[in-house]
Amino acid sequence: MAEERASRISVAVACSPSPGVAVEVEVRMRPGATAGDALRESGLLERFAHCGLEQQALGIWGRPCLPETPLRAGDRVELHRPLAMDPKEARRLRASPRPKRAR
Question: 2-95 domain in CATH 2.40.50.140?
Fold first, then answer.
């Protein structure tokens, strides 16, 4: 039993179920576990079932991956929400001059 625990790897599973909310859970997995295994083991799909997390893109440290991707110790599995706006357009809007307010 103690030998089984010692051979486990630790990975983090993170998601943002809604804007401004971030959740990260650490899970201990057997060597050879996949990103999909870690997601199921984390319990986040059940905890945030109303958010439709199972339809979100999966990644490891910000790089897209498939659920079958094997994990290494220290990996961070992430669920990525779709972008609400094109990043280039968002920057254009932030950089555009704003009208001065009357005092």
Answer: no
